[in-house]
Amino acid sequence: MIGEPIARVWHVTLGIGAVLLLLIAYTILSMRQHRENPDDKTIPSWSQLSEGVKKSVEVNQRSNERWVVADAQATSLRLFWGVFWGVSGSLLIGMLMGCFAFVEAFLYPPLAFLAKIPPIALLAVFFVLAGTGETMYVTMIAFGVLPTLAQTVYLAVKEVPAELRYKAYTLGASHLEIIWNVLLRHVLPKLIDAIRLQIGPAMVYLIAAEMVVGDVGFGYRIRLQFKLLNMSVVYPYIVVLGAFGFGIDYALRKLQAFVSPWYAKGY
Amino acid sequence: MDQPASLAIDCLSHGFGTKPVLHDVQLRILRGQIVALVGPSGCGKSTLLRAIVGTHLPRQGTVTVFSGNSHLTGHVVEGPGRDRGIVYQHYSLFPFLTAVENVAFGLMLDQTNISYRLFKFPRWLKRRAEHLKQAREFLDRVGLGSAASLYPSEMSGGMCQRVAVAQALIMKPALLLLDEPFGALDEAMREELQRMLLGLYQENLAARRKGELEPHTMFIVTHELNEALYVGDRVVGLSQYWDWRQAGHAQPPGATVVYDCSAPIFEPDDTRDFSCFAGQREEIRDVVFNPDSAYPREKHLRYWQELEQQREAEPAP
Fold first, then answer.
1. Both A90 and A124 in a single domain?
2. How many CB pairs under 8 A join A and B?
3. I need a labelling partner for A186 at 20 to 30 A (CA). Which of A53, B40, B132, B300 fits?
4. What is the domain extent for residue A3?
5. Mean pLDDT throughout A175-192?
6. In this prediction, does ipTM exceed 0.90?
7. Which residue is closest to A265 within chain B, CA to CA?
C-alpha cells in the first residue's frame, strides 16, 4: 500500500542491491567497450581504475604532494569558508527581515531577485570583483547560497506563531531574548535543512569555478585529467566528490539531531 | 475582608478600521476570582483579551493590572508583561522545550538575562538546577511529574494544556488569562482540566480563610456556557446585542458588557450537575447570545449588588 513502511532489513538489502547493480552495470559497460577497443580510456576497466586511484593517492614526483589530499584540502576549505560566511550572512539578514518590517520591506525585493540568478552566470562578475584567488571562491559560494538561505530563515521566523512571542513576553522575555531563545531555536533546524539542500549547488559553483581558474582542487583535477583523457582518475574523483557530499550531509543531519532533538521527534 | 482588585478596565473601546468592535467596556476583577467571559462569535472576546495581555492596545480607555505579593500596586497596561500569564487554545507551549523546560522557561527569562547565562555560566547552571526542581514540583501539582522529559509533540492536547497552566502559574501572575483553553479537547479531558481549575479556586478559598492574599486570579474566555458557569465564580457576558439606540447611538457602537452575575461555586469532587444552573444558562442565552434581544446594558449587571448582599449576610468576624 502507498506509504506503508518496510522492515529495516529490507531497507539495507535494497540499498546494497542498488549499489551492486550500479557496479555490475559499469562492469558490463566497460567490458563491452574494451572488447571493441582494448586501449579504451573512456570507460576504464577495474584494473585501469585501480591504477588511477594509485596515481591520485601516491606522492606526485613533480608537485611532491598527493593529489587527492591537496585537492580535498583546497576544495573543502573553500567550501567551508564559503558556506560559513553565507550561513552567517543569511542568518543575520533573515532574522532581521523576519523580526523587523522595515528591514523586510528594504531587503526582500533585491533578495528575491538575486535568489533567481544562478551564481555561475555571475562567475565573470566575481572574477572582476574578487580576482581569481581564494577570496573569489569563498565570495562566490557565500553569495550563491545566501539569498536562498536568507529567505529560508526569514520564512521560518514568519512561521513562528505570534502567540509564542506574546507568551514569551508574558514570561518576562526581552526583545533580544525573544530572538535568541525563541525565534533562533525555532529557525535552527530549518536552517540546517536548507544548508543540506544548498551544499549541492555550492559544490556546483565551486567545481565550476575551479575548472575555469583553479590550480588545485577537485574541479581543477577533473578538468585537467579529462583533457588528458585520464578517465581512470576522473571517475574515482567523482566517487570521492559524492562521498564528500554524503559525508557533509550526514554530519549536518547529526548536528541537527544534536541541536534540535525536538525537530526529529515529529514537530 | 474586602478583596482588592486585580484588574480594572475603564471605558475601553476598540475597532478595526471604521468597524467598531468594543464599546465602553467597564470591568473590575477582584483578587482570587475566576471570571468567565462569554459572548457570541465575533463579539470581541479575543480583542478584549489581547488588550489585557497588552499585545493589541485599545483605541480608548485603559486596562490597569494590580500586582504585588502583599501590597498591590496598579499600573496601566502598555504592553505584555510578566504580571499577566496567558494560556492559549493552540501554541500553548514552546515546541523546542520539554515539559519541564517549558515550565522553567519563565523563571529563566524572569530571573536571568543572556549575558548572565553566557558569562556567569557556572552560577547559571546552579540556578538552572533550582529552576528545573521548581518546575518539576509544579508539574507534579498538575499531575504530570512523569512527563517531564517529553516534548509537546509527544504529549496529548490535555497534557499540553496542563503544562501550559503550570508554565503560567510558576510565574505567580497577578492575573491568569485563558483563551478558550479547553476548546480543542475531548469531553473527558476537558472535565479533568476544569476540575483542576476548581482545585486552584479551592486554594484561593483556603488562603482567604487564613486572611492571606488569594494566589490565583483567572479570566477565562470560553464559548461554552456550561464551562463558564461550572468553572467561574462569576460570569461576564460581552455582546453586541443591546439597546444601543436607546443609549443614543445611530449606528451599532460595538459589543459591551451586558451581563455580570455570580455563578454557583463547585468543588473539584462535586458531581458535575449542569441542571442546577439551567435557569441562569437560559438567562445568559437570552441576554448575551440572542440577536433579537435589546436590553439596556445595565439591566443584567448584578454582580456588585449580589456581592454587597452577600457581605451583609455574612456574620461579622
1. yes
2. 80
3. B132
4. 1-37
5. 94
6. no
7. B153
